[in-house]
Amino acid sequence: MKKAMIGLAAGALLLTACSSGSAKAGDTGSGQPTASASASELNDHTDPTYSGVGLTPPQPRPQFTLTDQAGKTYKFGSETAGKPTLLYFGYTHCPDVCPTTLADIAQALQAVPAAVRDKTQVVFVTTDVKRDTPAVLKSYLSQFDAGLPNPFIGLTGSQTQIDAAQVAAHVALAEDDGQTHAAQVLLYGPDDYARVSFLQSTDETAQITHDLPKIAGGK
Amino acid sequence: MSRPSVSYFAAAAVVIAGLAGLVRGAVPQQSAAPAPASSGPGIVIGSAYVRQPANLINAAAYFTVYNTTDQPDTLTTVDSGAGAQTTLHVEDASGAMSANAAGLTVPAHGSASLVPGKGHVMIEKLYGRLLAGQTVNLSLTFAHAGQILVTVPVIGVTAPAPTPGGTPK
């Protein structure tokens, strides 16, 4: 019963909403802290190997083709094959969750052993194809990957391509011009499976720092 | 989320600065030494920060509100000196982030935190670039405590955030 409830809560958190500032008519928040569980509360730690949210069954590395921040075709499946890869969907106008998540990833990469840092690839896929051009993505991501050995990859494409990428990665389709988008960071290992994901929380940096070496080191 | 203990109030009070004027259009504002007390009786703001915006378009301020009084209070209105439009955004029951007309309620002898994904003060139409090391002036108006002025530090794009309800990690 408890597991079922946790599952429901996890489902409710699959989408996160970055606010755009345009208030919608009829929005009436309670003003009270919401009852939804935090990411750490969602993790029931049935698999003590990982600090993040375990994925059962593991999800295979998806195949999708988009355009990178240099304007070149980027085949995610083949470009990242065999590399520890952190995959995240978001958009650059997002004021809160996206920049915090990218900052958490950058901090974690600085904290892990150099051997792990050197082989890990971060890929950011925009959910806002109207505004996030390759040039916008390049400018945005270069502020997060400063000092890291592997530049973050920023991907955009047509709405159809972005939708296909989200489907391939088994994340919820973004809505509202990409402003409501999947919250989780997926971590694929050298064996091309994701066994753990991360949700925005004050503990996210520590979770990635803990789990990434475990994933990156093993086949 | 850990519940803040009383010992954190001293640390929280450090970031309080009752700045004399909330001047729009001036970014950054080099504040003088922080004033020792907030203007609102019984309300203390802690762990406040703004992450330097990587998009150069909008910014989000986060903080924890401590209420030391015997009655609940509500943060009703926000304003800032960093942008032309400032709004309180709080996650609603459905998980969507939206401008919150009802405000942020802080229980008596309790606290409420704005953290990424749960809520923030949204600052748009920035008057200029916000860079780490600068500060942003926030005006927070509470139903009971009235207006409180806070000087919020801007942290680096990838800097660790202060832990809500606690001391910086």
Give me some keywords for this one.
heterodimer; A: 219 residues; alpha+beta; two-stranded antiparallel sheet; 8 helices; 21% strand; globular; disordered N terminus; B: 169 residues; mainly beta; 4% helix
Written account of the structure:
The complex is a heterodimer of chains A (219) and B (169). Chain A has 219 residues and is α+β, with helices and mostly antiparallel strands. Helices cover 33% and strands 21% of the residues of chain A. In chain A, strand 6, helix 6 (134-141) and strand 7 form a beta-alpha-beta unit. Chain A is globular. Mean pLDDT of chain A is 83; it is low at 1-13 and 20-41. In chain B, 52% of the residues are buried. In chain B, strands 1, 2, 3, 4, 5, 6, 7, 8, 9 and 10 form a ten-stranded mixed β-sheet that branches.
Write a compact overview of the structure shown.
The complex is a heterodimer of chains A (219) and B (169). Chain A is an alpha+beta fold. In chain A, 33% of the residues lie in helices and 21% in strands.
What percentage of the residues of chain A does DSSP assign to strands (E)? 15-25%
Structural class of chain A: alpha+beta
Radius of gyration of chain B: 15 Å
Helix content of chain A: 25-40%
- Residues in helices of chain B, as a percent range: under 10%
Low-pLDDT stretches of chain B: 1-39
- How many strand segments of chain A? 10
Strand order of the largest sheet of chain A: 2-10-9-5-6-7
What sort of overall outline of chain A do the alpha carbons produce when their principal axes are compared? Answer: globular
- The N- to C-terminal Cα distance of chain A equals 34 Å
Instruction: Give me the strand/helix succession of chain B.
Output: HEEEEEEEEEE
**Major sheet summary line of chain B:** 10 strands, mixed
- Terminus-to-terminus distance of chain B: 15 Å
Portion in beta strands of chain B: 35-45%
Largest interface: A-B, 44 and 43 residues
User: How confident is the prediction overall: mean pLDDT of chain B?
Assistant: 79
From the spread of the alpha carbons, the general shape of chain B counts as globular
Oligomeric state? heterodimer
